Amino acid sequence: IALASNDTDGYTRVRAAIAFCKIDSNTVQALMASLGDADAGVRGGAARALGAFYPIVNDPIPECCRKHTMIAAGDGFKLPAMKGTVPALAKALGDTDARVRRSAAQSLAAIGPSAKEAVPALLTALADADAVVRGGAARALGAINRKGTGVVSPTDVVLPALIKALGDSDAGVRGDTAQALRMVGPGAKDA
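The chain above was modelled as a monomer; its predicted structure follows.
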């Protein structure tokens, strides 16, 4: 549904909007519960799904789609259950399986500035044993602190952590960190 909501075809986007109307608190709660599943594949899939749903269900409905929904103009798909998504994904950054931690970092990056309460867990993830997790954490920190959001300042703890990550032993992590610093914008110019 998330991919279809960004399709170039307007009809496909409308159908995706209608499908999202069927996502309710029970769906979100089931996904969050799946973060605790015994199977790492299920946990990783749940983390990815939450990251895909969050930005869309918390955005206003496009004008073209309102006539196909029962939601009033100006309203969005804001689901109260989505409130627990960021803490659940932050907790998943500590999962024993690297694939789950990777998915959690990727989803927090997709959520962006709304995931600011996950910053402490992401800072910890910058030291993860898995390079892909470290790179994902850097990207998420950049997305959360994207320029113009007002989430970070040059004296904040995020910027020094990202500058330190530029010295990571893995070239991919260094590249992800450079990209994160670019997202932060002028506040990161000294890096």
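The first helix runs from residue 10 to 21.
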